[in-house]
């Protein structure tokens, strides 16, 4: 695997989501498939880049960030297949995939440093490679979903859509008042991050996107997931919620299927979007393209180990114990004999 070091300025903004090809279009690229290092606020940060097969510097590609879960790393996501998305995004829908590495194997995003890291990766990649700047996406499981959410909150004009897999507001939400196209899937029996935590994330963008709330919301259909496409949303800002009868699992499949539905649902949602026009006006979502057959083997993701302690009453959980935090006045989730220790304003852990 290629390894290089890039000394970068941690700029706080990137090109807005407009119909524009990146400065790297037409250039002979220096970034290839491999691992790279960026210097952010005096810290070395690593990320892996995966180019489409037969990369063409005159074709503008989608840009997809895939964030790992707590305890994972960038290599696990890259080696595990980027959440199963590359086989689904081919031809004119091919993408440049980026797998960043979090500090201490997580995305605490203290002082917004992880958002700054994303800003820097976007700028560096787009100065060297050909990217359609209105087609930037992010996805992640658990803490990785929280980081995708934090980026959407902080940089709503820079990201076209995100896909959150069983997550909670663990990386903060600076800003968080503008619309972003939003997909979220969550299990009703999630023993690590309760479904109520996921609903909190979803409801923000249902509101921001001008969608019509549902009360009561649809429930899983036995062993099959239920997909809700919200109505009344802004033309370019849809929201989709998938609920399933299951635990904290990125590879959940429907009864009778051995294929996880996350990759196909994510691509179905993202495939609606095309480049914005020259004036920056969004082209309305199209009907999702037929989804190619998924890979025979499900994507490999970091193993999910359910907590050994039984969950306490919502909205806390034994693994992500809320000890206080930014705006948190609810009960603690620490087990007897443990101590709540502050990590940052949003993410507290029982130690």
TrEMBL record:
Residues 1-19 form the signal peptide. It is found in: Secreted. One of its GO terms (cellular component) is extracellular region. Residues 209-325 are annotated as: Disordered. It is an enzyme of class 3 (hydrolase). Residues 282-313 have a biased composition (Pro residues). SMART domains: fCBD. One of its GO terms (molecular function) is feruloyl esterase activity. Residues 249-274 have a biased composition (Polar residues). Keywords: Carbohydrate metabolism, Hydrolase, Polysaccharide degradation, Secreted, Signal, Xylan degradation. It catalyses: feruloyl-polysaccharide + H2O = ferulate + polysaccharide. InterPro entries: AB_hydrolase_fold, CBD, CBD_sf, FaeB/C/D. SUPFAM superfamilies: alpha/beta-Hydrolases, Cellulose-binding domain. Its EC number is 3.1.1.73. One of its GO terms (biological process) is xylan catabolic process. Residues 315-351 form the CBM1 domain. This is feruloyl esterase.
